[in-house]
Design goal:
The complex is a heterotrimer of chains A (about 300), B (about 325) and C (about 350). Chain A is mostly helical and about 300 residues long. Chain A has a single domain, classed as MetI-like fold. Chain A has 13 helices and no strands. In chain A, helix 4 runs parallel beside helix 8, helix 6 runs antiparallel to helix 7 and helix 8 runs antiparallel to helix 11. Chain B folds into 2 domains: about 55 residues, no CATH class; about 230 residues, MetI-like (MetI-like fold), CATH 1.10.3720.10. Chain B is about 75% helix and about 0% strand. Chain B contains 12 helices and no strands. The model of chain B has no long low-confidence stretch (mean pLDDT about 85). With about 350 residues, chain C is an alpha/beta fold. Chain C is about 30% helix and about 20% strand. Chain C has an 8-stranded mixed β-sheet, with helices on both faces. Chain C has a 4-stranded antiparallel β-sheet with strand order 2-1-4-5. In chain C, helix 4 packs across helix 5 and helix 5 crosses helix 6. The longest helix of chain C is centred in the middle third of the chain and has 18 residues. The radius of gyration of chain C is 21 Å and the shape is globular. The N terminus of chain C is likely disordered. Classes of the chains: A mainly alpha (about 300), B mainly alpha (about 325), C alpha/beta (about 350). Chains A and B meet through helix 5, helix 6, helix 11, helix 12 and helix 13 of A and helix 1, helix 6, helix 7, helix 8 and helix 10 of B.
């Protein structure tokens, strides 16, 4: 039955809401809240899996990821679960080890970006006036400029971008969206009664920002942060794929770069590009699910009836 | 009109920022940009060519502001410089055909994805928990999680190489001579067949975002009094759904369209690389690979300007749809 | 100010003694995460032709829910779970989608609380009148437009504003436009859910006066919902008082004002200053409305009642009983009074 049609009559016995017995596991409050949402819980499970793979990579796949261990383009077998590359490298080992750089770059750069977002967004929203006008203008401009071409151009000028350069380039080009979101929330909070009270009672501005404003937008910061991590993982893979990464590094993007450059598609070696792509998508998807979950927890209107 | 004037001025500022970035990025890089840029062409280019190249980028003797003025002057005259990898072809000559291919491919694909996403989003919200909500929405979110280029590889592999339904590279059959007035049906057919897979890739990968955004806007609008009142008026579902709910819900989607256009275009450019589609993305990546800096810079500028123009068109549409913006 | 507008058709012979609308044992539940909330519990009342029936109570007492239930525009998580809503002998709750679509607006329209939210911001006021007309008649576009202008004129808006968008109208004009839409098909019943709360007092008075004139001119009935008691008493013929989802007292408005029988009504009537009549001390009602997930046993008002009968009011739920001419109240004290003369 279509549940949104307001005219629908539902009999009294219509929808039984099952009461789940409360399971008490000692978890921090925020984590329990997130896990109470089904989407977020699934997302957390997938993400945890990849974190464990990254941590235990040398145990799961001992051996050098870039070492030639087999014939070129060997199909998946017991010895090489994901087959081998054109250079005879074991794809499974590459994918397992690649999770490390993807997650480290993703979360590291994502964190860097969210710091920039907080710095710029909260400043603009809290200080207001001319500072806000100028920062907002820049936010809107950077929001509208096509990010990837800009990143490609910047990376093109740097001969061989290392992880730190990638972080700086992505930070420099991708802060606008999060900053804008945080700015408007800061603006709302700045005009709230409790911030006004804190200001009148003589709290310094940095205390107000750190202890009054930021704690009241944790969920927004969290979802912007996750959004930034997703963006970085996808963009980093793209940069490696188009040849702007270090081709000797071990990452999912680099494996895909070699798959494309070695005509893996033409030779039918699907195993060289399917596993790393699936991993990128799964990590991205798990983060998206967590974000949907946070969204539903903070915005109950989207929850609807399940 | 005030709204459009303000937006137009904003796009001018954005274009100016892009132009300025183009000028400063090489100068912000560590080391001497002139050396970075020209070291590898030593010997490949004669000294006169080097001089003209330097001048295009404003790498002239003098303070930085003077360099900037030289650069702006060149740009104002439409002088984008000469290509290095195809020396001495002017960059503009290389860009123009690519720009047309990209506008056709990405333009059509993006608008198609937007329209399909909007319509599906309307129905998803109208029948919450129905087929679109519980089936299509998760699928598009999963597809959306893959990098654009990976989806492109996957589609090339399945439909191009395994099933061999469609060609997998280039924009037309290279055995045919391109005819500019599109009078040769064989050529037109070839272009359509070559364009189909890249277009589907872009549509599939960007559809989910529009769908989800529109669905959530719709859900918000459906709880508004004016929608309830339209229902109480005994209007047909169709009219309530489109004229009352969707007409309002689409407005934030149009704003989101502006904001994500740059992102979508970026992804679509990489799709061109996978299909070796001779558009701006392919050209940009070739330029980066060949260290063809003048070409690289010009491609970036033109992509940016194209995105800004598309945004302005979205604004015009917004004004048509929302009387409050007039 | 009001133009003469001929009633387009006589819909049926109206018997003034037969109720136009009869709500019987209506039950509405909200299905929330915390459980089911019974927002409207066995509510029954009648509205007669050309009558203004007022419903009052604290916010959250279920009065707006009733208005939305009667028009069947309740959104999930609200569900009608029992009762009948009879309009001229037909149960609205049994209508299928097609019948309901034809019935709506033709016989019953609704004026929402906030005109700003009730008008679609992106299409003209005229179009919003015309689509109601065209959904129910085969009037041509030209005729529907002429009728829309006529309706605007009727509610005191310059007919040339037919092409205006809602944001181009003032607050008062918007509310008038909403009333014009409600009048479009000349329905027998108009539900007015706080029709003037968003407006300033002067405009409010003026619009209420005009609504009364329109009512006399066209002969419709009104289900009037408000929390403004002085407006309610002044404007309604009969009044129902709601508390925590139940109807606790129904009486002609004069009587409910001068001779309230339910302790809650008594307190409510004493909690607002009267414009005319003797000055009374302003008293609020102590306590707050109960949580409807776990409503109090017995009479729902007993925790806030000064005169509750120990042992009885906590346990037995009082039923609505006749206490005078067209006067009903649900209170054990009333029973006592009746018993003890």
């Amino acid at each position: 039955m279509a549940q949104n049609k307001p005219t629908t009559l539902v009999p009294a016995v219509g929808r039984a809401v099952p009461l789940r017995p409360a399971v008490r596991i000692p978890l921090p409050g925020w984590l329990r809240t997130i896990l109470s949402n089904r989407k977020a819980a699934v997302g957390m499970a997938i993400l945890t899996f990849f974190v464990l793979v990254a941590v235990f990579a040398p145990v799961i796949a001992p051996g050098q990821p870039n070492k030639m261990v087999g014939r070129p383009h060997e199909a998946p077998s017991a010895a090489h679960p994901f087959g081998t590359s054109r250079q005879g490298q074991d794809i499974f080992t590459q994918v397992v080890h690649g999770s490390r750089s993807s997650l480290v770059v993703g979360f590291g750069t994502g964190t860097f970006i969210i710091m920039l977002c907080i710095l710029i967004g909260v400043t603009a929203g809290y200080v207001g006036g001319l500072v806000d006008e100028i920062l907002s203008l820049f936010m809107n401009v950077f929001l509208i400029l096509p990010g990837l071409p800009l990143i490609i151009v910047v990376a093109g000028w740097v001969q061989q971008p290392g992880p730190l350069t990638v972080m700086l380039v992505l930070g420099f080009t991708s802060w606008a969206y999060g900053a804008r979101v945080l700015r408007s929330q800061t603006l709302i909070l700045r005009n709230s009664d409790f911030v006004a009270a804190a200001r009148i009672s003589g709290e310094p501005w940095w205390r107000i920002i750190l202890f009054e404003i930021l704690p009241n937008m944790t969920s927004l910061v969290a979802s912007s942060w996750i959004g930034a991590v997703i963006f970085v993982i996808l963009t980093e893979a793209t940069l490696s794929f188009v040849g702007l990464g270090n081709p000797n590094a071990v990452s999912w993007g680099v494996t895909l770069f070699w798959a494309q450059n070695n005509q893996a598609l033409l030779t039918g070696a699907w195993w060289t590009f399917v596993p790393p792509g699936l991993c990128i998508a799964l990590v991205g998807f798990s983060l998206t699910l967590i974000n949907y979950g946070i969204d539903e927890i903070t915005n109950p209107r989207l929850q609807g009836d399940k | 009109m005030r709204f459009l004037t303000r937006r137009f001025l904003f796009y001018l500022v954005a274009a100016f920022v892009a132009i300025t970035l183009n000028f400063f990025i090489p100068r912000l890089m560590a080391g001497d940009p002139v050396q970075v840029m020209f070291a590898q062409f030593q010997g490949r280019l004669d000294s006169r060519a080097m001089e003209s190249l330097k001048e295009t980028f404003g790498f002239v003797q003098g303070p930085i502001l003077e360099q900037y003025a030289t650069y702006l002057g060149n740009l104002a005259r439409g002088n984008l410089g000469l290509s290095i990898s195809n020396y001495p072809t002017p960059v503009a000559d290389l860009i123009f055909p690519s720009l047309l291919w990209t506008l056709r491919l990405i333009g059509v694909a993006t608008i198609t994805a937007f329209l399909i996403g909007i319509i599906l989003g309307i129905y998803a919200a109208w029948r919450r928990g129905g087929g679109i909500d519980s089936f299509l929405l998760p699928i598009t979110s999963i597809v959306g999680a893959f990098p654009f280029f990976w989806t492109a590889m996957f589609i090339v592999f399945i439909f191009g190489l395994q099933l061999k339904w469609f060609p997998t590279s280039h924009a037309w059959d290279i055995k045919l001579t391109p005819n500019p007035d599109w009078s040769n049906p064989e050529f037109v057919n070839s272009v359509l067949r070559h364009g189909l897979l890249p277009m589907l890739t872009i549509v599939f990968t960007s559809l989910g975002g529009w769908l989800l955004g529109m669905r959530n806007n719709m859900i918000g609008v459906l709880s508004q009094d004016y929608v309830t009142m339209a229902q109480a008026k005994g209007l047909s579902d169709r009219r309530v759904m489109f004229t009352y709910a969707a007409r309002n819900a689409i407005l934030p989607s149009l704003t989101a369209f502006s904001m994500s256009l740059g992102f979508v275009v970026g992804g679509a450019l990489v799709v061109e690389l996978v299909f070796a589609y001779p558009g701006m993305g392919y050209l940009l990546l070739k330029a980066v690979g060949g260290r063809d800096y003048p070409l690289m810079q010009a491609v970036f500028l033109l992509i940016t300007i194209a995105v800004l123009i598309a945004n302005f068109m979205a604004d015009v549409l917004y004004v048509v749809l929302d009387p409050r913006a007039r | 100010m009001l133009s003469v507008m001929p009633k387009p058709e006589v819909k049926r012979a109206v018997n003034p003694d037969e109720p136009l609308l009869s709500v019987q044992d209506l039950e509405v539940e909200y299905h929330t995460r915390r459980g089911k909330v019974r927002a409207v519990d066995h509510v029954s009342f009648d509205i007669y032709p050309n009558e203004v029936f007022g419903l009052a109570g604290e916010s959250g007492c279920g009065k707006s829910t009733i208005a939305h239930a009667v028009t069947r525009i309740l959104h999930p998580p609200a569900y009608i779970v029992g009762g009948k809503i009879m309009m001229q002998g037909i149960d609205i709750l049994q209508m299928n989608d097609d019948n309901l679509r034809g019935f709506r607006w033709e016989h019953m329209s609704i004026v929402f609380q906030s005109a700003m939210n009730a008008l679609n911001p992106v299409i003209t006021v005229g179009a919003q009148i015309m689509d109601a007309i065209q959904a129910h008649t085969d009037m041509s576009k030209k005729d529907a437009r002429a009728r829309a202008k006529e309706l605007l004129n009727t509610v005191g808006i310059d007919p040339e504003r037919v092409d205006s968008y809602p944001h181009q109208l003032s607050g008062g004009m918007r509310q008038r436009a909403v009333i014009a839409i409600a009048l479009a098909l000349n329905p027998e019943l108009i539900i007015m859910d706080e029709p003037t709360t968003a407006l300033d007092v002067v405009v409010q008075k003026q619009i209420m006066k005009e609504i009364r004139q329109l009512k006399d001119q066209f002969g419709f009935s009104i289900l009037f919902i408000t929390h403004d008691l002085s407006l309610l008493v002044e404007f309604s013929d009969r009044i129902g008082i709601m508390y925590a989802g139940e109807l606790v007292e129904v009486a002609p408005s004069r009587q409910i004002f001068t001779n309230p029988q339910h302790p809650y009504t008594y307190k409510l009537m004493n909690s607002f200053p009267t414009v005319s009549g003797p000055r009374q001390k302003l008293v609020g009602i102590p306590g707050s409305p109960p949580d409807l997930i776990t409503p109090p046993t017995g009479c729902r008002f007993h925790p806030r009642c000064d005169v509750a009968i120990a042992g009885r009011c906590q346990e037995v739920m009082p039923r609505l009983a006749k206490v005078g001419d067209r006067h009903y109240a649900a209170c054990h004290l009333v029973d006592e009074k009746v018993i003890h003369g």
